[in-house]
Amino acid sequence: MAQRWSRRSFRKAFRDRQKELAQVRTAGCQLIHWEESEYRKRLLEIYAPLPLLYVRRNEQVLNCHAISIVRARRPTPYGNQIAERLVRPGQPRA
Predict the structure, then answer these.
(1) What is the domain range of residue 63?
(2) Sign of the C-alpha dihedral computed for residues 50, 44, 79 and 28 taken in this order
(3) What's the pLDDT score for residue 35?
(4) In a domain? residue 26
(5) Positive/negative CA dihedral, 13, 15, 18, 19
C-alpha cells in the first residue's frame, strides 16, 4: 500500500533530507547511488546492496581490492582485537 503524505509530513521529511545532505557536505562526503558509474560493481552483487554509499575523499578507491569492517553495536573483546589488527598497517595478521 502506498504511503499517503500530508503537507506537514512531506515538509518535515524534506527538511530532514536537507539537514542530512548538509551534514554529508560538512563532513566532506559525497553520495553515490547504485545506478551511478562510480558505484563499485562488486557491491551490486551482494545480497542486499546499499542504494547509497557515503564516500569521503577519493571515490576511485571503491574499485580497488578492499576489506570492509562493519562495527557491531556490542562488539566482543576478541572482535575488537581482530578489527584493530586488520586496520593497523604493519600489524601481524590473525
Answers:
(1) 7-87
(2) negative
(3) 92
(4) yes
(5) negative
